[in-house]
Amino acid sequence: MTRARAALSTVLLTVPLALGLIGTAATPVGATGSAATPVGAAGSVTSRSAPDSDSALTCRGRGVDPDVLVRHRTETVIAAPLATVWRIQTDVERWPSWQPPVESVRRLDHGPLRTGSAFRWTMPVPPHPSTPATSLEITSTVRQIERGRCIRWTGPAIGEGLRIDGIHVWTFTQVRGGVLVRTEETHTGTEVEADVPVAARLLREGLEAWLRDLKQAAEARGSAR
After folding, report:
1. Which of 129, 193, 202, 218 is the most exposed place for a label (fewest CB within 10 A)?
2. What spatial distance separates the first Cα and last Cα of the chain, rounded to whole Å?
């Protein structure tokens, strides 16, 4: 295993690396198709490992780079009010309370997220035979946002011997039974491009974990009311 691949595996197997790095008509979660594969319990999460460029998620007309090799899209329906889902996802400083892999988050500005808002978040990375224990630091900048509908951010994730640049788009659509949350992300960088199949698989696992955590947090908050 090369050092680049070892570094990639160490980090991405440890944390759901969605770089804090968002739409249209709802597709029922769990629907079958050539590009969709249900994950976990029926109707929980649907993933698209290689979406067509014309179906890419966008926020205010901007999406991910369709030519990037490491790209993934996934979605779920959350049985909670749209306002609740949006608030949980965009209150980034509270991410550690419902996303176990997130160690800390610090806003670099104040107030509700808006275009130009930035936040820095960290995830611990345990030691690996070829790499020391370290912390992954991600600096995310909001590029486009439309309250209650979508958000798109970009930014680098930097750790010991590792840099990944990401673009992350989220969309939120009110549907029967709750909110359809879709997300799509791309990664670029020497380490991820050294082993695209592994990087793509780990990105998929990370995004699915993020959606499961968001779904659990929002539905628990809704049932508590």
Report:
1. 129
2. 51
